[in-house]
Amino acid sequence: MTEVSIERLTMDYGVHRAVDGISLRIRNGEFISLLGPSGCGKTTTLKVIAGFEHASSGAIRFDGNDVMQVPAEKRDIGMVFQNYALFPHMTVAGNLAFGLEMRKLPKAEMQSRIAKVLEMVQLSSHADRYPNQLSGGQQQRVALARALVIEPKILLLDEPLANLDAKLREEMRVFIREIQRRVGITTVYVTHDQAEAMTMSDRVVVMFGGKIAQMGTPAEIYDQPASVEVAKFVGQVNLLRMKVEAITGDGGMDVSGPFGVIKVKSIEGAAPGRAVTVAVRPEAIDLVSPSEGQAATIASSYYSGSLMDYRARLADGTLIDVQTFPRQRFADGEAVGLSIPADRWWPLEVTA
Predict the structure, then answer these.
(1) Which end of the chain is more exposed for a tag (fewer CB within 10 A), N or C?
(2) Residues 303, 323: contact at Cβ < 8 Å?
(3) How far apart are CA 287 and CA 324, in angstroms?
């Protein structure tokens, strides 16, 4: 297992700065996801780690050793691409053997490794098939096996599930994570899909504009977003503008808004009279009787099988998104109450 350190990494393409001085330490055996929209710098960062791109400045260290001048083929990394990049004229076994042949391994060891990895990815019976004889999910497993068979120090995956259908993506998330845990390899995973990042990662690194906006566990990123931008990118969220009424002596503050006066954690810049944006996730809200919560009316509802999505309208016209299980059904126009536990409100930023 290998620790990866990224130190003040910058990558310029002419006047465009794709990566802007980011620093990150990836622990031995950790699964890290770089999450963000297209053009945020996540794939460029991955390419610099791999050695496919040469950074403008900064350092990449594997176990403390600077590898910035080490060519890609000598960095001992396994890479899985979005388009699989399998050799169409080679069988599954041939694709796996290619990297081992480049390393001049003895034939017996090659065969042993190939058999072991094919069993791991549940493709032992497909060794003699060609890529065009495989499904998309099977091709992705071959690509993963090819990256693992060389027994690299680090596994890098660049949007590996983007070409799969929704059901297969869900299955492959679990499959890749289970393989990574079994092997114990340090892994960096690039995605724009927040569900992938949340379900697979030990930590998530959210990037915007070439910079790290926030890094933390999936729960920290989701429940305690560092900014409005992060809160909006990672899942659904209600953002409410409220007024600071008082700063309390216990690290909190009282804010007022459509739900009356509530208490939240105090944040930098907060002062009585100032406006603050407060977030609450749709699934944190309970629909109760009007007498038990903030009075509202169901404006619209959407059934998605496992969940019900409601939009509720408060008396002042504010629209609130609510997500519940289907066993609880309310009709459009029905009067309800909205109940939100005190610890589910999260202040984001002072706005005025």
Answers:
(1) C
(2) no
(3) 8
Q: What are the residues facing 158 on neighbouring strands?
A: 190
- Given this model, what pLDDT does residue 85 score? 85
End-to-end CA distance of the chain: 48
Q: What is the SS3 assignment for 215-277?
A: EECHHHHHHCCCCHHHHHHCCCCEEEEEEEEEECCCCEEEEEECCEEEEEECCCCCCCCCEEE
CA distance 305 to 71: 50
pTM, rounded to two decimals: 0.92
Burial class (CB in 10 A: 0-12, 13-18, 19+), 78: buried
Tokens 């400045």 belong to residue: 57
For residue 166, what is the enclosing H or E element? Answer: helix 166-183
Order across the sheet with 77-80: list the strands: 77-80, 154-158, 186-191, 31-35, 203-208, 211-216
Alpha carbons 10 and 7: distance in angstroms, whole number: 9
* Distances from the Cα of 62 to the Cα of 66, 147, 152, angstroms: 7, 18, 12
C-beta atoms surrounding 123 within 10 Å = 20
Residues contacting residue 325 through CB under 8 Å, at least 6 positions apart: 306, 307, 308
Tokens 């058999």 — which residue? 115
pLDDT of residue 274: 96
Tens of pLDDT along 77-106?
999 988 888 999 999 999 999 999 988 999
The encoded tokens of residue 208 equal: 């915007």
DSSP string for residues in 60-97: EEETTEE-TTS-GGGS-EEEE-TT----TTS-HHHHHH
For the chain, which ranges sit under pLDDT 50?
none
Nearest to 246 by CA among 230, 261, 229: 261
Burial of 15 (0-12, 13-18, 19+ CB in 10 A): exposed
φ/ψ of residue 85, rounded to 5: 55, 40
How far is residue 138's CA from residue 88's CA, in Å, rounded to a whole number? 14
288 three-state secondary structure: strand
